[in-house]
Design goal:
Oligomer: single chain
Number of domains: 1
Largest sheet: none
Order of helices and strands: HHHHH
Amino acid sequence: MDDQKLLQARRRLRVDSQEELFGSIRAHALGALVVAFAGLVLLFAPRPLALPILSLAMIGASALAAFAAWALRANHDRGAVTLWDAAGAFAFVGCASAMLSKPESILRLFADAGAP
């Protein structure tokens, strides 16, 4: 029964081996964790600081995902979502939120961090 479920999941995600299946699941889980973190940042951070904090968090998540993909030697030529895809998506969201941030709020973020 379990083998049949794995076979169905492989067909759905278009992967050839069990290792690729679990790699795809890891990429999706990482994406879900980062989206949940981004939602918490937007929910609990002060409004003017939400986008700069989100930008820093997404760029950091992008760096972590890219390092994990490099360390795990993730295949980037597959048809399924990989860690490289997740890293690119996080970088895109981080750059977009940085572009939408106002310079005054970024200055406030770093001024608050350096204040005694």
